[in-house]
Design a protein that fits this description.
The complex is a heterodimer. Chain A has seven helices and no strands. Chain A is about 80% helix and about 0% strand. The chains are: A mainly alpha, B mainly alpha. Chains A and B meet through α2, α3, α5 and α7 of A and α4, α5, α7, α8 and α9 of B.
């Protein structure tokens, strides 16, 4: 079956047209799309800036392309933010709720993170209806909301995760001191002046660590949260760590005062 | 003579004497009555187990060493055992490192351009929160770090708002 000259001409026209379509700049280049899975926005932002500053072609094409890039970036940002919020919520959800002091704070953070997810869902539903001005307004609105509401909440939720884990350490420390006090009394080591002083210092050190730990709990209940809760968490842990240094000193002293034979 | 012999053949002991003698003889014989007793069995088992346990303890002491701290656990002196203290102190150190991870400012983080509308202190706390989020596995390090070439969600929103 042979081709007619007219058929060959149409085939050539279609091939050239396809080639032209392939090389024409589309409304959005694949490169411009924000990578939603890795939350990378740098290339898309650069593409947007290049379009706005370096493109002097068809204004209508420029506007269409800019709007498409903006929407893609907005979708990418919101999806990335939702992923981040969901992961944080899952982590908070994993905190055991059996501790009386932890449970109410945990519930409050879960509720706040649910509200954040709802906010992002509402914002996402608006993206498709936006023009360039609307996309700027929405970006500004989300940015402001994140600064004033989400970031402080998320930061405190992160602090809560560390603090909740700390409660096991504080419980162990308090139990340890009670056991050491009982052992020191049983062995009559309080008759030794140094042992007595070390024990008293341990009690005061742990008391101070407990107070700092309670202060953190109060801060976690506040909104807007104080900016330095993480510093307070660190201080409480450092005080607890100092208490253990005193426990080690007591242990060494006890070994000297009561020879207990060879140790492991 | 024959009559005499026949009379001797009929000689027999006095019945009461023979009965008494039999009783006395039987009483002097060692009588072994095998009566299996549950208590006896249990007692022997406990004794054997005790002996085995003693041998085990002696072997443990001889081969594996001996910790008087653990041995005195009933007196709660184990609370002063350095091994137990070390484990708890190490757990505290790990938490201190986690809480402090955000404040170990790297030169790269310091050179990060300021985000519009945020103070230096706020940026420091935000950076600390970002590092903490990475440490807790809440975010991927590429999503929120302010390292060179990375654009955070807030940076991208600021760029879109212009």
């Amino acid at each position: 079956m042979g081709y007619s000259p007219a058929g060959k001409r149409w085939t050539a026209i279609i091939a050239v047209a396809l080639l032209c379509i392939a090389f024409l700049p589309g409304p959005i280049s694949a490169h411009a799309a924000a990578d939603e899975t890795t939350c990378q926005f740098a290339d898309s932002i650069k593409e947007l800036e290049a379009l706005r500053t370096d493109y002097y072609g068809d204004p209508a094409f420029r506007i269409r392309t800019e709007l498409a890039i903006r929407k893609k970036i907005l979708f990418g940002i919101i999806d990335c933010a939702v992923d981040e919020t969901r992961t944080l919520k899952d982590k908070v959800d994993e905190v055991p709720a059996d501790n009386g002091s932890i449970a109410p704070i945990r519930t409050r953070f879960l509720s706040m993170l649910d509200s954040a997810l709802q906010y992002y869902a509402d914002a996402r539903s608006r993206v498709d209806t936006l023009g360039i001005g609307g996309s700027k307004d929405l970006a500004r609105e989300i940015r402001t909301w994140r600064t004033n509401t989400y970031t402080p909440t998320a930061t405190q939720a992160l602090n809560f995760l560390v603090w909740a884990k700390n409660q096991e350490l504080f419980a162990a420390g308090n139990d340890r001191l009670a056991d050491i006090q009982a052992a020191i009394r049983a062995l009559k080591l309080t008759e030794d002046e140094k042992a007595r002083a070390l024990l008293e210092e341990s009690v005061l050190s742990l008391k101070s660590a407990n107070e700092e730990n309670d202060r953190v709990r109060t801060e976690l209940d506040q909104f807007p949260p104080p900016p330095n809760t993480l510093d307070a968490i660190q201080r409480s842990l450092e005080k607890l760590s100092h208490t253990y240094e005193l426990f080690f000193s007591l242990s060494e002293l006890a070994q000297k005062l009561i020879p207990l034979g060879e140790k492991k | 003579m024959m009559d005499l012999l026949k009379q001797l053949k009929r000689i027999a002991p006095d019945p009461s004497f023979s009965a008494r003698s039999r009783i006395e003889l039987l009483a002097q014989m060692p009588v072994r009555i095998v009566r299996p007793s549950l208590w006896q069995f249990l007692g022997e088992s406990v004794a054997s187990a005790g002996a085995l346990a003693l041998v085990g303890i002696l072997l443990l002491v001889a081969v594996g060493g001996f910790s008087a701290w653990n041995f005195l656990t009933p007196l709660r002196i184990a609370s002063l055992d350095p091994a137990g203290l070390t484990a708890e102190a190490e757990a505290i150190d790990i938490q201190i490192q986690l809480a402090g991870v955000g404040y170990t400012d790297s030169p790269m983080a310091e050179s990060t351009p300021a985000i519009a509308g945020t103070s230096t202190l706020e940026q420091r706390h935000n950076r600390a929160a970002h590092k903490l989020a990475e440490g807790l596995g809440v975010v991927q390090s590429t999503a929120t770090t302010t390292e060179e070439g990375q654009v955070t969600i807030d940076d991208a929103l600021s760029a879109l708002a212009e």
